[in-house]
Amino acid sequence: xxxxxxxxxxxxxxxxxxxxxxxxxxxxxxxxxxxxxxxxxxxxxxxxxxxxxxxxxxxxxxxxxxxxxxxxxxxxxxxxxxxxxxxxxxxxxxxxxxxxxxxxxxxxxxxxxxxxxxxxxxxxxxxxxxxxxxxxxxxxxxxxxxxxxxxxxxxxxxxxxxxxxxxxxxxxxxxxxxxxxxxxxxxxxxxxxxxxxxxxxxxxxxxxxxxxxxxxxxxxxxxxxxxxxxxxxxxxxxxxxxxxxxxxxxxxxxxxxxxxxxxxxxxxxxxxxxxxxxxxxxxxxxxxxxxxxxxxxxxxxxxxxxxxxxxxxxxxxxxx
Length: 320
What we know:
By secondary structure, the chain is an alpha/beta fold.
């Protein structure tokens, strides 16, 4: 790991090449034609669900004061008959078995996507939208999760844990540019404009053991992050909580990868993705379909990414 005293991230907020009102950033590279092309190659006979389920006690971000995931019933069959809040009467309410519930959670819980307003630099987020002008009492009015369109794109798995021959990379392992290049070479693949890069550290092999899933994550170095955005990807994903290595290797920024991807490159980040089945089956190239809940102004939203292998691409099962 680099000496923090010797390195600074040097990240600046970028202006979008797609205009002063743009809120999609790199996702502008995804087009109807590119979506149709990758969907035409998808083998839907096996759909990989890359998300994790939500449950009370699940690993989540609470160290900074954010709430744990909670679910509770707002209506139960017996309670509805007793309360009679709908005015239908006890007899009818006992016949109709009505249940309802409420959830409460931080928007960056479980498998989710970070919107472009999640991180910025110097009071600005991607494309120069300033907090003074665009952050109200409840949420940003720019760069929110509702601006993220359904993602239909080529996904490319960079199996760094597999490259190193381990089930999971060690804590705080900093993934290098060379690691990324070697993982692609091993899979006989290259990244192309419009791709989504998915980085496997192996952390999901420990899910849902929070003591092993969260904290001091192995992840991308800032150099590797910059190399990946230099390949014109439209989104980045990883099987841990922040995509980048932690703790930060840079003294002037505690999450420089976030600031680079979101504020400097306009590339949304997908976190806590389960890549174990893809790696096990040797599926390194696939059609990725993912859409967040359209939470207006939110800095992130739950996501359910689905992957389908490509008909014209042979799988390469991981050696045991």
